Amino acid sequence: MTLAVLFGIVLVVFVLCDLIWLSNVTTPAFKKEVGSILRQTPDAASAIAFYLMYAAGIVAFAAYPALQSESLVEAAIRGAAIGFFAYMTYELTNMATIEGWKWHMVFSDTAWGVFLTAVAAMVGVLGAMTLGFGPGD
């Protein structure tokens, strides 16, 4: 039950915050640079698969270990590390393969990924603890 609660909280926080960010910041900014390669409408199946898999990764490698030690700081640090490596991998791959990808896109999107992943992990742990879940549950 603990993993399901963590997963649900992390997923909701991550998706809601990311959709707000994508709608208001990233998509308008990236359209200026690489608009010709962006889809008019995102592929829903791919987006859903990403969000489910990424939330599971946050839970497995950040939120659950931090819940076991009851540490929001650990959640933040682990989440930030996951965000850094995941987003930097994506961004540097794009930088290497997509004409027009710019360094400011790499840095701004990676900063967002670090922040959002850390926040999602922390809120997941805080939510689970508030609901009475903790080590050994």
UniProtKB/TrEMBL annotation:
UniProt keyword annotations, A-Z: Membrane, Transmembrane, Transmembrane helix
Q: Spell out where the chain crosses the membrane.
A: 6-23, 44-66, 72-90, 111-133
Q: Which domain of life is it from?
A: Bacteria
Q: Is Transmembrane helix there in the keyword field?
A: yes
This protein is called Putative membrane protein
Q: Look up and give the organism this protein is from.
A: Rubricella aquisinus
